[in-house]
Automatic annotation (TrEMBL), chain A:
Species assigned in the record: Thioclava indica
Ranges of residues in domain SUF system FeS cluster assembly SufBD core: 167-395
Protein's UniProt name: SUF system FeS cluster assembly SufBD core domain-containing protein
Coiled coil, from the record: none
NCBIfam families: sufD (TIGR01981)
A biological process term (GO) from this entry: iron-sulfur cluster assembly
InterPro entries given in the database record: Fe-S_cluster_assembly_SufBD (IPR055346), SUF_FeS_clus_asmbl_SufBD_core (IPR000825), SUF_FeS_clus_asmbl_SufBD_sf (IPR037284), SUF_FeS_clus_asmbl_SufD (IPR011542)
Highest taxon, organism lineage: Bacteria
From TrEMBL, chain B:
Domain spans labelled ABC transporter: 2-248
Protein name, as recorded: Transporter
Gene3D superfamilies, alphabetized: P-loop containing nucleotide triphosphate hydrolases
Keywords linked to the UniProt accession: ATP-binding, Nucleotide-binding
Length: 425, 257
């Protein structure tokens, strides 16, 4: 047997890591950290419910791209369109990256853009304690593409990152850095499955009074596997808002690590996941960690999952209130609607509080469709399928409400209705 | 026309017979009232007719204008013109009242092969009906029955009835929980729908409602059967003397009722 054959998949994966050009010291540091912590196993506290095997494997499990017959998302929105095809920037399909009030460069071409080199990997590193995030370190070390976005003004035009999956074996690793200067504002839209396997990290630095809006739709691919990591630092009076819609996907793990470092800041993260395990497995995991390190911070976590045919949903959400973070207001809710008895939802809500004058609450529920409500609707002539869809939408409403802009909210609802129409019975 | 013949119903989960041979025919345009002691099976009859789960029909039949009700889905019964105003209207958080009403109306229209109502016409229709029932427009913006008072819920049932224009209306204790003025409003709403062809089955404990909605027939239900049928005077008699004598006459023990 050769040496290669004796390696575990994790060792084989690590051995294959090559460090692309640019951000050299940051990449080397990330690789060192990664080697020190190793890739996760099922025994790791936050990987007990999600099997990392397919994310670790040296090669992605082949995944056929899904032919989507719906109109493209956000098509009617006046936006700056930036396309990545199987994890590689597609200049032809993208708009000109110039937009006033914003500087955008490609990670692979930027060399060492000054502002970005002090951020690249920094927020990810901060997010490694107290919980290790090995895949994010892997991403920082080996990402070949991604965007460095610096926002200096209030940008009306959303930046839309579009991830196209075409190759059955693509392994997309993208790393974005977004820096909002004081008082700046931007909306980042992300949509698409990105690759057969994708690892996407976004580091977001939100300066004083800046506002960051993020709306993500993770594509309709059934077979893709995806891990994402958002690492944000939220300064005084700033707002961070992120919403994710996931429908389908064999494996999704969305990590979100938010650090409130300035007083009077807001951090809102929400998600709606719809899974039907009928033709493909569906496993969806939201793992959130919000740290309150300043006074009068307000954080919200609102996560809803609709699961059927053996679909699995996971929620691991933590609020950590550091000493001195007085008047913190932390709210967390995770709920699952199981449309049958084969599906499963596991939740681990955690609060850790070291300040005395705080208000934190969390709740988690698992339930089925309310039969009494269903009968009431049917008795008024609404057919079962449509009545069920109404009840599912009403279940998801709290998460959708977290999207501030109505036009995006409406677009998300149309997608939800589409999914419900396709996954009847 | 609604025809109920020898209807026997037991609970699906338990060996408990609730309806023990109900016979009732409602001709078009007529108003029938049902009174009867608590637990005699009045709501059960209304639920079985509208298709709620949990009951098993062991014998008998029910037809609405030729449609075999007991074979049809609840939504098919509704589209065929059956409407039940619930004794306990259901709260549905997250579903807006307007969405609910529009979806219901359009579902029924679609099932009958009619065109959907336009958004504009629908709004006009709802506004007009709500106004006549003195239902606040703000209430319509809220989720279905959520945060409604008991009386508001009952009025909302009648609003739905007015909008859906069913052929056969069953009102299960719509008067309970209503204040005097609301009772008058609701009765006027019901009377406005009396057009000579639409029929009503009004379940109530109180003669008072029947002063407003004048029934053609009054039935007394006890122990899962209709034990007595008469005109409006029967309701007056019950109001005065209670059920004891009637139950006695039919050999039904008080606690059995
Ligand atoms: N789902 C059920 N489970 C158990 N018992 C039931 C159920 N539905 C009805 N019953 C029983 O059947 C009997 C008839 O109930 P029903 O609600 O039809 O009475 P009712 O005549 O409408 O009474 P009320 O005047 O109090 O409204 C009662 O004894 C009731 O407890
Ligand atoms: Mg009753």
């Amino acid at each position: 047997m050769s040496a290669v054959e004796k390696m575990t998949p994790a060792e084989a994966r690590l051995a294959r890591v090559t460090l692309p050009e640019g951000m050299g010291p940051q990449r080397r540091a990330a690789l060192d950290r990664l080697v020190a912590m190793g890739l996760p196993g099922r025994r790791d506290e936050y990987w007990r419910w999600t099997n990392p095997t397919d994310l670790i494997a040296p090669e992605p499990v082949p995944a056929a791209p899904f032919a989507d017959d719906e109109p493209a998302l956000f098509d009617d929105v006046e936006r700056l369109k930036i396309v990545f095809r199987d994890g590689v920037f597609d200049a032809e399909a993208s708009d000109d990256l110039a937009l006033s009030g914003i500087e955008i460069s490609r990670l692979s071409e930027a060399g060492d853009v000054n502002w970005a080199s002090s951020l690249y990997g920094t927020l990810e590193t901060a997010g490694q304690t107290p919980v290790e995030r090995p895949f994010a370190a892997l991403n920082t070390a080996s990402a070949e593409d991604g965007l460095l976005i610096r926002v200096t003004g209030k940008i009306e035009t959303p930046v839309n990152l579009i991830y196209i999956h075409e190759s059955e074996s693509s392994d997309a690793i993208l790393h974005h850095v977004v820096k909002l200067e004081e008082g700046a504002e931007i909306t980042v839209l992300e949509n698409g499955p990105a690759g057969a396997r994708a690892n996407i990290v976004m580091e977001v630095d939100v300066a004083k009074t800046a506002r960051f809006h993020h709306i993500r739709v993770q594509g309709r691919d059934h077979e893709r596997r995806m891990l994402t990591g958002i690492f944000a630092r939220i300064n005084e009076g700033a707002l961070f808002k992120s919403f994710t819609l996931s429908s389908n996907g064999a494996l999704t793990r969305n990590e979100c690590v938010l650090d409130i470092v300035g007083d009077d800041a807001n951090a809102h993260v929400a998600g709606a996941a719809l899974g039907d395990g009928k033709s493909q497995p569906f496993h969806h995991d939201d793992t959130i960690f919000i740290t309150h390190g300043a006074e009068r911070g307000e954080s919200r976590q609102v996560f809803k999952k609709v699961l059927k045919n053996g679909a699995q949903g996971i929620f691991q959400g933590k609020i950590l209130v550091k000493p001195g973070a007085q008047k913190t207001d932390g709210y967390q809710i995770s709920q699952a609607l199981l449309l049958d008895e084969d599906s499963q939802f596991l939740a681990k809500p955690e609060l850790e509080i070291y300040a005395d004058d705080v208000q934190c609450s969390h709740g988690s529920t698992t339930g089925a469709i309310d039969e009494t409500a269903l009968f009431y609707l049917r008795s008024r002539g609404i057919p079962t399928e449509e009545a069920t869809a109404l009840l599912v939408l009403s279940f998801l409403a709290d998460a959708i409400e977290e999207i501030e802009q109505e036009r995006f909210r409406d677009e998300i609802v149309i997608r939800l209705e589409g999914w419900l129409a396709r996954h009847r019975g | 026309m609604l025809e109920i013949k020898n209807l026997h119903v037991k609970l699906e989960e338990e060996d408990k017979q609730i309806l023990k041979g109900v016979n009732l025919t409602l001709e078009d345009g007529k108003v029938h009232a049902i009174m009867g002691p608590n637990g005699s099976g009045k709501s059960t009859l209304s639920y079985v007719l509208s298709g709620r789960d949990g009951y098993e029909v062991t014998e008998g039949e029910a037809h609405l204008n030729g449609l075999d009700l007991l074979e049809a889905e609840p939504e098919e019964r509704a589209a065929a013109g059956l409407f039940l105003a619930f004794q306990y209207p259901v709260e549905i958080p997250g579903v807006g009242n307007m969405t609910f009403l529009r979806t219901a109306l359009n579902s029924q229209r679609k099932a009958r092969g009619e065109d959907e109502i336009s958004a504009g016409d629908f709004l006009k229709l709802v506004r007009a009906k709500a106004k006549s029932l003195k239902i606040d427009a703000e209430m319509l913006k809220r989720p279905v029955n959520v945060g409604f008072s008991g009386g508001e819920k009952k009025r909302n049932e009648i609003l739905q009835m007015a909008i859906l224009e069913p052929k056969m209306c069953i009102l299960d204790e719509t008067d309970s929980g209503l204040d005097v003025d609301a009772m008058r409003l609701v009765s006027e709403g019901v009377n406005a729908l009396r057009d000579g062809t639409r029929s009503f089955l009004v379940i109530t404990h109180y003669q008072r409602l029947l002063d407003h909605i004048k029934p053609d027939y009054v039935h007394i239900m006890a122990d899962g059967r209709i034990i007595e049928t008469g005109g409006p005077e029967l309701a007056l008699e019950v109001e005065k003397n209670g059920y004891a004598a009637l139950l006695d006459k039919h050999g039904i023990a008080q606690e059995m009722a």
